[in-house]
Structures are given as structure tokens and as C-alpha cells.
């Protein structure tokens, strides 16, 4: 059965990364996706933020995931000769004295210090940032996720490894040592289907959630420096591949409520601008999108084989997927092919 391909459900960020990781290890894959325009990977602004939150923490999979994911993006750029990762300094406006104290504590820790830039006093950036407490710089960037998905899609099609439809869970048959769909046999099915995994009976008990959110694409009336402006009010980030456009976000709705575009969210996001920029220009709203982020109540990704089934999962990456997905896809490939343990900071399907 080693010669059978793996069937990957979903060609978003996670599914694309898993497909590449398996192919690079000489495994066969078939990827099924219906190209739904509201899939989270097609809406995400692609923020590659290594350190975030009031306590300034790495994503759940840790510092190793951030460093390895950054390098993986650079490797894929070289492989496909296409720019995917845009380096941008994150100007973070501190929320108060405690956050600045935490920043100074993190500077003393080598794993954090390599991702942190200098602190700045209020008004230091020509008064551009709304920063009454000052703030500090984080070395990060943006991933052009649509470009990445198109690149992987082209690669899969060139090898006949892409199916243009969603395969429903009820179509899958558990044959013990392999899975079957419509007469085709697969070594295992790998679920990377994001929020849709919540309704998947194969994943029952994992506890996946849908966290709805809205984001705007805006065009400032005059040029704004290409920083990522970040604070408790949200973010304003350059839109990769769209010169002069920024993404303004994001809202976070109650878990498992509908993801839809609302006037209230639009006004809320535009109303947050003065808390990001001290002199915000008029912003023309170019686009307004809503989607659902896949997450878990523990705020940790789910990775690994499903107990006693020819299946595996990578899901629940939440809002910090850019610097987790590349590392976790490599880990899942090793887990499937060599029985390597799942990384720290991840939930095993049996314990999620």
C-alpha cells in the first residue's frame, strides 16, 4: 500500500503546504478543492507576525516554528522563482506601561530578541502612528497567499494531482488500511479543509470552531509608508501585489456565528483608524470581505493521524497561520512517513 497516493482535502494554505512537503519526500498526492472564494486562505491579509498579544508570545508551535516557517517561505520563493514573502517592519503601538515592560523582558531572551526591533517614543515616526505610550518594532512581514495558492495549483495541475471539486466526507470509505473514494484508493485522506472540518464526521470530537471576521481593502487618499501598523485597535497592512492598497482589519465575531459582510463592521474598522494612525488619510473602501478562521478552544492547531483510521488532519491554525503552517506541514509529512512525533504546542486528534 506504500505506492498509494495521499488524498488531501482542501488546497488552502495548510493543504498546499502539506502537498508540497509530501511531494518533496517522493510521496504521491491528490488534492481536492472546489476553489470557494470565501475560503479563509483566499481572504487572509497574510500577516507574518512572529510575536503578538499583550504578553508578546510566539504562536502555539513556538519559536522553532516561526524560524523554520520563515526559512520555508524563502525556500519556496527560490524553488518557484516567485516572490511570496514581503519583509515589512511592524510598528506596534504599546497598549500601556505593562506591555512596554514585557517588551524589555523579552529583549533579554535570545529567542525573542532576534525578532524584536528598537523601542520608540510617542510621536517618533513623524507623528504618524497613534502611540501615546510609544511602542516598539517587530521584524515580520506579509505573505502573498493568493500568489502562493496559484503557484501550488499550477504545480499540482502540471502533474495531474488536482481535483476541481470538494469531496464530501460521506463519499469517503474507511477500508481499514486505506481509504476509498469512488473506486479510487488512497493510503490515507488528510483533512486540511479549514472551517468546513467542523461538520466533518471523521473529525468529530476535535472541537474545531469557526471564528468569523471581516477585513477591508482600502486605498489611502495619499501615500502611506509601507509599514504594518499594529496595536490593540487592529492592523493596517500593505496589500501584497497591490501597490497603494492596504488591508484594514480585523473583526472577531463570536465562535460559530455566520461570517457575512456587515455595514456595522465596516464602520467599526474605519472608526478604528484614528487609534492606529494619528492623522489618518481618507480611505476609499475598495473591497470588503468576510470569512471564518478555523480555530480550537485551546487556540492550538490540531495535527496528526486520526486514531485507528486511514486519515490525518492539519487544522485549527487560527489567525497566526503564516508562521506555523509551513513548519507544521513538514512535521505532518514526517509524522506520516516516518512516525515522527507531533511537535510541541499541537493537539493530537485524540486529545483535542
How would you describe this protein?
Helix 1 (13-23) crosses helix 7 and helix 2 packs across helix 7. This protein has a domain at 88-139 and 209-295: D-Amino Acid Oxidase, subunit A, domain 2 (D-Amino Acid Oxidase, Chain A, domain 2). Strands 3, 4, 5, 6, 12, 13, 14, 15 and 16 form a 9-stranded mixed β-sheet that branches. The chain has 7 helices and 18 strands. Helix content is 24%, strand content 27%. It has helices spanning 13-23, 62-80, 97-107, 110-113, 145-158, 263-272, 325-338; strands at 6-9, 29-32, 47-48, 85-93, 116-120, 135-143, 162-163, 172-174, 179-181, 184-186, 188-191, 209-220, 228-231, 234-238, 246-249, 283-295, 302-305, 311-315. By secondary structure, the chain is an alpha/beta fold. The model has no long low-confidence stretch (mean pLDDT 94).
Amino acid at each position: 500500500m506504500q505506492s498509494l497516493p495521499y488524498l488531501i482535502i482542501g488546497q488552502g494554505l495548510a493543504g498546499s503546504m502539506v502537498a508540497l512537503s509530501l511531494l518533496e519526500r517522493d510521496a504521491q498526492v491528490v488534492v481536492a478543492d472546489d476553489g470557494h472564494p470565501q475560503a479563509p486562505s483566499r481572504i487572509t491579509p497574510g500577516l507574518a507576525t512572529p510575536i503578538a498579544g499583550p504578553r508578546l508570545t510566539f504562536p502555539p508551535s513556538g519559536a522553532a516554528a516561526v524560524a523554520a516557517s520563515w526559512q520555508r517561505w524563502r525556500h519556496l520563493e527560490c524553488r518557484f522563482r516567485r516572490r511570496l514573502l514581503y519583509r515589512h517592519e511592524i510598528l506596534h503601538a504599546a497598549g500601556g506601561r505593562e506591555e512596554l515592560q514585557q517588551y524589555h523582558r523579552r529583549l533579554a531572551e535570545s529567542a525573542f530578541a532576534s525578532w524584536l526591533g528598537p523601542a520608540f517614543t510617542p510621536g517618533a515616526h513623524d507623528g504618524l502612528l497613534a502611540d501615546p505610550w510609544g511602542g516598539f518594532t517587530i521584524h515580520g512581514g506579509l505573505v502573498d497567499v493568493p500568489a502562493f495558492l496559484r503557484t501550488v495549483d499550477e504545480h499540482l495541475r502540471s502533474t495531474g494531482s488536482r481535483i476541481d471539486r470538494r469531496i464530501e466526507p460521506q463519499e469517503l470509505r474507511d477500508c481499514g488500511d486505506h481509504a476509498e473514494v469512488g473506486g479510487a484508493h488512497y493510503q490515507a485522506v488528510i483533512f486540511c479543509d479549514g472551517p468546513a472540518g467542523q461538520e466533518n464526521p471523521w473529525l468529530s470530537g476535535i472541537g474545531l470552531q469557526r471564528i468569523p471576521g471581516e477585513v477591508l481593502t482600502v486605498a489611502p487618499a495619499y501615500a502611506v509608508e509601507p509599514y504594518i501598523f499594529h496595536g490593540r485597535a487592529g492592523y493596517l497592512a500593505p496589500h501584497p501585489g497591490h501597490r497603494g492598497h492596504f488591508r484594514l482589519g480585523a473583526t472577531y465575531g463570536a465562535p460559530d456565528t455566520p461570517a457575512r459582510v456587515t455595514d456595522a463592521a465596516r464602520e467599526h474598522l474605519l472608526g478604528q483608524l484614528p487609534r492606529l494612525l494619528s492623522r489618518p488619510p481618507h480611505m476609499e473602501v475598495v473591497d470588503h470581505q468576510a470569512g471564518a478562521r478555523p480555530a480550537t478552544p485551546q487556540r492550538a492547531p490540531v495535527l496528526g493521524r486520526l486514531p485507528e483510521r486511514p486519515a490525518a488532519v492539519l487544522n485549527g491554525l487560527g489567525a497566526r497561520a503564516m508562521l506555523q503552517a509551513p513548519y507544521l506541514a513538514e512535521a505532518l509529512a514526517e509524522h506520516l512517513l516516518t512516525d515522527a512525533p507531533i511537535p510541541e504546542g499541537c493537539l493530537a486528534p485524540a486529545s483535542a
